[in-house]
Amino acid sequence: MKKIFGDMEFIRRLVLIALPIGLQSVIQLLVNLIDTVMVGTLGDIALSSVNIASQFPFLYMTLIMGIANAGLIIASQAFGNGRPDKVKAMLSFCFRLGLIINVIFFCVSYLFPETIISIYTDSAGIIETGGTYLKIFSFAMLFQSIPLSAVIILRSAGVNRLGFTSSLFACAANVFFNWVFIFGNLGAPRLGVAGAALGTVLARATELIVVVIGIAIDRKLGWKLKDITLRLDKGAFSDFIRIGTPSIISEVTGNLNVSAAAMITGRVSEYYIAANSIVHNIWTISSLFMFGVAMGANVIIGHVIGANEMKKADEYASYFINIAALIGLCGAILTQLIAPLITSFFNVSPQALETAAKLTRAAGIAVFFLAMQQVLTKGILRGGGQAAAVTRVDLLSCWLVNIPAGFIVALVLKLDPFWIYLSLRIDYLIKTVWALYRIKKTDWIIRLNVD
Questions:
Q1: Where are the domains of the chain?
Q2: Virtual CA dihedral for 327, 329, 330, 333, nearest 10 degrees?
Q3: How far is CA 269 from CA 145, 169, 274, in A?
Q4: In the chain, fewer beta carbons within 10 Å around the N or the C end?
Q5: For range 99-112, the mean pLDDT
Q6: For the residues 3-32, what does the mean pLDDT come to?
C-alpha cells in the first residue's frame, strides 16, 4: 500500500488539506440540496430559473478562483522555500484585484439581468423569473472575492480550517434566510425565488465577516489590514502573469464550457434543465473529496518543488495518480447508489424525473474521469507550474470537442439525454489521457521565482 498511496507522513499532509475541504464540500452540498428542494417546491420553472441564473455568477466565481489559484501556485512554492513574506504579498495583490472584479460584475448583473438570462435560454418564463433572481443576487458579488481568495491562498501556509469554518456559518445562514424569505416565515414576506436570492446575499455577507475575523486572529501567516498595500516584487509579478493568466483562462474556460452547455441544454427542454439540477446534487455528493485531493496535490507538489526536492515531486505525483483513480471509482459507484434517495426529495414533474434517471447513468461514467482529470491537471500539473499547458488543453478540448459534440448530439441529432450528458463532458476523458502522458514524460516540473 505504501508504494501505491504513499507513506503515513504523505497521507497525513494530504488529509490535513483535503479533509477540511471535503467537510466544507459536505456542508455546501447539504445546503445546496436543501436550497434546491426549497426552490423545487415552487415548480419546474422556478427550479430551472435559479439553475440558469446561477451561470453568470458562476463565471464571476471562476474568475476569482482563477486569480486565487494562480496565487496559490506561487504561494505554495514560496512557503515551501521559507518565504511567508511572499505569501502575504500575493494575498494582498489578489484582494485588490478581486475588489475591482466585484464592482464590474455587480454593475453588469444589476443593470442587465434579463439580458444575461436570455443568453442561456429562450423561455420567457425562465428569463423573467431568472432575471428577478439575478438582480438581487448581484449584491452577493460585492462580498465574495475576499473570502474566496483568502481561503484558497492561505492553504499554502497551512491555514486549512478557515474555509470549513466560514462555510459552516455561511451555509447555516443561507438555509435560515432562505426558509424565512422563500416561504414567508417569522413574519417576513413570502418572496419565492426572490427570497432565495436574498438569502444567498445575506449568507455571503456572513461568510465575509467570518473570514475577516479568521484572518485577524490567524497566527500562522500574520496578515494584517495594513498589509493590503504590500506589492509583489518583480519576479513574483512576472510569475503571476506567466502562471496567473493561463490559470484564469483555464478557470473561465471551464465556466464557459458549462455556460455553453447550459445554452445547449436550455434549448432541449425545461425537463432537462430541472433534471440536470437534480443530478448536479447527486454528482456533487459523489465528488465531495475530489477537489480537496486536487487542492492537496497542488499545495504539496508546490511545497516540495519550492524546497528543491524534485525527485520527491515525481514520487508524490505517482501517489496522486493512484489516489485519483481510487476516488473516481468510488465516486462512480456512489453516484448510482444514492440516486434513488436524492431524487425522491424533489417535487418535479414525471418527465423531469425520467430524464434525471437517464442523466444519472451517464454521470456515473463521467464522474470517474472528472476525478482523474481534476487531480492530474488542477493538482499535479498546476502545482508543478504547468498552468499554461493545462490551459491549452482546456481550450482545445472545450471548443474543438465538447461544444461541437454537444451541439450536434443535442440539437442536430436530438439523441437521448444520456448521450447529451456524456457528449458535453467528453473533455474529462481527453484531459485524463493527456495528463497521464505529460506527467510520465518527467519534464513537467517548473520552479518559480520564490527565492
A1: 2-440
A2: 160
A3: 34, 36, 9
A4: N
A5: 95
A6: 79
